[in-house]
Design a protein that fits this description.
InterPro entries: P_trefoil_chordata, P_trefoil_CS, P_trefoil_dom, P_trefoil_dom_sf. The protein is built from two helices and two strands, in the order H-H-E-E. The chain is mainly alpha-helical. It has a domain of about 55 residues: Spasmolytic Protein, domain 1 (Irregular).
Length: about 90
């Protein structure tokens, strides 16, 4: 009698590959929506002390909406503006 190979291992491998793929997508989305990204701004421009932050947003502004306004977004410090105006980079003139 000829033995038919078991198909039980294949669905497990396929499921594991799908889980890994979904995990990769979730990690990519989480890292791309980081509050530390400043579109068009340098990290130095957004290094504004909490006490010196000038509000640039509105309640429930998202990091993307804040950055689209040319502002910095940092939600790590409660009680201060999370969307705030960046520091102006000094231009050197000789």
């Amino acid at each position: 009698m000829k033995r038919v190979p078991s198909c039980n291992a294949e669905p497990t491998v396929v499921m594991a590959a799908r889980v890994l793929c979904m995990l990769g997508l979730v990690l990519a989305l989480v890292s791309s929506s980081s509050a530390e990204e400043y579109v068009g701004l340098s990290a130095n421009q957004c290094a504004v002390p909490a006490k010196d932050r000038v509000d640039c947003g509105y309640p429930q502004v998202t990091p993307q909406e804040c950055n689209n306004r040319g502002c910095c977004f940092d939600s790590k410090i409660p009680g201060v503006p999370w969307c705030f105006k960046p520091l102006q980079e000094a231009e050197c003139t000789f």
